[in-house]
Design a protein that fits this description.
Number of domains of chain A: 1
Largest sheet of chain B: 6 strands, mixed
CATH superfamily of chain B: P-loop containing nucleotide triphosphate hydrolases
Distance between the termini of chain B: 36 Å
CATH class of chain A: Mainly Alpha
Oligomer: heterodimer
Shape of chain B: globular
Structural class of chain B: alpha/beta
Shape of chain A: globular
Strand content of chain B: 15-25%
Largest sheet of chain A: 2 strands, antiparallel
Order of helices and strands of chain B: EEEHEEHEHHHEHEHEEHH
CATH architecture of chain B: 3-Layer(aba) Sandwich
């Protein structure tokens, strides 16, 4: 019974949230919630490699940004159908993950962190210098993707589409993590040498995990491009990678709900402290209170927020 | 079953393994002894594919595996345990063993079907847990086990891959006499199904278990013979056994 409630309660909230906000005439928060859902997907993809696979990728913005740019560039060239641009975004992000992963995964530890960061920064500068597609200024999309029969410019329709996609992604991730593949990925995180010694070709497993994660980040990128109707190099900047990582750490590394919870909490905190309602003119310094809360979570709940609420393992 | 021919490995200026030629026969417990730093663990690393070979060949069951990847060797039936316990510490005992069983039963590039539904995997893992006397600890996280139990799990992980030859690198390391006896009994039980190459410092265990003993000193094999002959070999006594056997 309580198990059903645990799922039904949050699910009910995310389903009725836009309706309530609409009734209260707070349209802004529908759009804000959509943004959280998109970042939840991106953070969940990072948690797959970071939390479950033990691969500390500090360049996940590369895949997120690549997905976004594919949608932006295709729209700029006149292709707005989501049936074309979104799968393309996923495919290109997966391909980028394949190339970057194939090289980076030959290193370990700090070197892996640095090399993934370096690749992402390289992609960032590529897009900065890509004058044909806006360079530094980025690209504005004239409208959201088409192809579903309903206008996605309608914030309701857009919210529910993103919600459904996030639901599908999380469901697939859940299946994956409990499959044979998921067990092997976690075993490699626990003890790579031992995983090799019992007979797993660990490099292949890690690379595939990295590509799957990149593909999901690419889809999230395609969504964020639509969300803001704008793509710019900032999406690929290392700060973006850092933000995703903070979300995962805040929510819970290697916890199933870590990514979504972290995305929700971080964006909500930013919103809370950067608006003038709470701090007045001090809201300019919103990073300070957010930083203090981050520190507190890391110090007092090292398993993250999702970890703090989970029951202790035996 | 396993033939090493002139196997060598140097690390910079240090020759860790120097032209080792060694045969392990089917059904045999072959002990490899020698003082610390003799190159025994490096040799085990070479046989299991974790350490490369500068020269020489490794033949396992009539196939040249000198350049084979570690996971290919496991699939061919060659498994190892580690001197320093190497287990999946945050997994339960059952999950540790099931994961090793999974490695050699079908593909693990499977993303949809829950692994928990695969009864055969866990049934076999349970059987191995019984074999290594951990049947009562299935649900325990590996990190919470006592040292001797972790050592048993270490060996269990190797056995779970159903090897034809298992390389045991100091399975009794750090064990008390009672735990050692249990390990000796375990190796005594498995020898019926699997050949064993045993690296061990516990001479009592070596002489109770081994069909043949090879002695390694400074990267070279100085003798390979039956235990009673090794005991009397003057070169071996001088290099290694001296104090212990004189007593």
């Amino acid at each position: 019974m309580s198990k059903v409630l645990k799922v039904a309660f949050p699910l009910g909230i995310v389903i009725v949230f836009p309706l309530v906000m609409h009734a209260m005439d707070q349209q802004f928060y529908i759009s804000f919630a959509t943004r959280i859902l998109i970042y939840a997907m991106a953070a969940a993809s990072l948690n797959l490699v970071l939390g479950y696979g033990g691969m500390v990728s500090f360049g996940h913005a590369a895949f997120f940004g690549a997905g976004a740019y594919i949608v932006g560039i295709l729209a700029f060239e006149g292709v707005t159908s989501l049936w074309i641009s979104w799968p393309m975004a996923i495919a290109v992000a997966a391909l980028a993950a394949l190339v970057i992963g194939a090289i980076s995964l030959r290193t370990r530890g700090v070197y892996f962190i640095m090399i993934t960061l370096a690749f992402a920064q390289m992609m960032y500068y590529v897009f900065v210098s890509l004058k044909a597609y806006g360079g530094d200024d980025g690209l504005s999309l004239s409208s959201r993707s088409t192809g579903l029969g309903v206008s996605l410019s309608n914030d309701f329709a857009w919210y529910y589409l993103v919600l459904v996609l996030l639901g599908i992604v999380l469901f697939l991730l859940h299946r994956l993590l409990h499959s044979r593949f998921g067990r092997v990925i976690e075993a490699i995180r626990e003890n790579e040498t031992r995983a090799t010694a019992v007979g797993y070709p660990v490099y292949r497993y890690k690379l595939l995990c990295f590509v799957i994660s990149g593909a999901i980040a690419g889809l999230a990128g395609a969504l964020i491009a639509n969300q803001t109707s704008y793509v710019g190099p900032a999406l690929l900047h290392w700060v973006q990678s850092g933000t995703l990582m903070i979300m995962v750490i805040l929510g819970g590394v290697g916890r199933f709900w870590g990514g979504p919870v972290g995305a929700g909490v971080l964006l909500a905190l930013e919103e809370l402290f950067s608006g003038s309602a709470l701090l007045g003119s001090y809201s300019l310094h919103w990073q300070l209170p957010v930083g203090i809360i981050l520190l507190a979570v890391v110090m007092f709940a090292p398993q993250g927020i999702a970890g703090a609420f989970a029951k202790k393992p035996q | 079953m396993l033939s090493l021919r002139n196997l060598s490995k140097r690390f910079g200026g240090v020759v860790a393994v120097d032209g080792v030629t060694l045969d392990v026969a089917a059904g045999e417990v072959h002990a490899l002894i020698g003082p610390n730093g003799a190159g025994k663990t490096t040799l085990i690393g070479q046989i299991s594919g974790m350490v490369g070979c500068d020269a020489g060949t490794i033949i396992f069951q009539d196939a040249d595996i000198t350049r084979a990847k570690p996971h290919e060797r496991v699939r061919a039936g060659l498994a190892r345990s580690y001197q320093i316990t190497s287990i999946f510490r945050r997994f339960s005992v059952l999950d540790n063993l099931a994961l090793a069983v999974q490695a050699r039963s079908g593909s693990s590039f499977s993303f949809w079907k829950p692994v928990a539904a695969e009864r055969a995997l866990f049934d076999e893992a349970r059987a191995i847990a019984e074999e290594i006397n951990l049947g009562a600890k299935l649900g325990f996280q590996a990190s919470t086990l006592a040292h001797g139990e972790q050592r048993a799990l270490e060996v269990g992980l190797a056995l779970a891959t159903r090897p034809k030859l298992v390389l045991l690198d100091e399975p009794m390391a750090g064990m008390g006499p009672e735990e050692s006896n249990r390990m000796i009994a375990l190796i005594g039980r498995i020898r019926a199904q699997v050949a064993v190459l045993l690296v061990e410092h516990d001479m009592d265990a070596v002489f109770r278990l081994a069909d043949r003993i090879s002695v390694m000193v400074n990267g070279r094999l100085i003798a390979t013979d039956r235990p009673e002959k090794i005991r009397l070999n003057p070169e071996v006594r001088k290099a290694y056994l001296g104090d212990e056997l004189a007593a």
